[in-house]
Amino acid sequence: MDGTDKKILGMIKGNARMSYQEIGDRLGISRVAAKKRIVKLENEGIIRGYNTYIRRDDEITMLIDIITTSEGFERTLEYVATKTAFIRQIFTTHKENHIHMVAVSDSAHDLKYLAEMIEKDCRDDAVEIQCRQIREIIKDVYGGIRYEHRSESDDGTDC
Predict the structure, then answer these.
(1) Prediction pTM value
(2) Residue in 110, 56, 53 with CA at minimum distance from that of residue 84
């Protein structure tokens, strides 16, 4: 991947619907050259798909972190990846036996139930489970949300 490919990724990260012509014009290359580069990035697995972000005011997001025993890590990962609703993303981190998840629903009751089921069904393998509801998304480059500087009066703190 070269500098031009990186520029293309930067452009489509915020707007995956950009035309090949638009991309080519911004980079000073032809529409066909832009398309070839994007197809190459797709074939290499660098671009893994295109998503539509739909903003819903009733949507609630919850972050779930699970620290498991060494023996229970794979069982817990299998459980949350296949047997639970509302899980949108699952990550493992460099912290030993750590699973981080993003769950989304339009119902706080559903998310509470999800957390209770994970706690119940994974209790023998989990060392620690923490759940936090998202209050506000400040920046999401994939969802089209850009950070806007807040003044001290915006957040009510003196920090």
Answers:
(1) 0.66
(2) 110
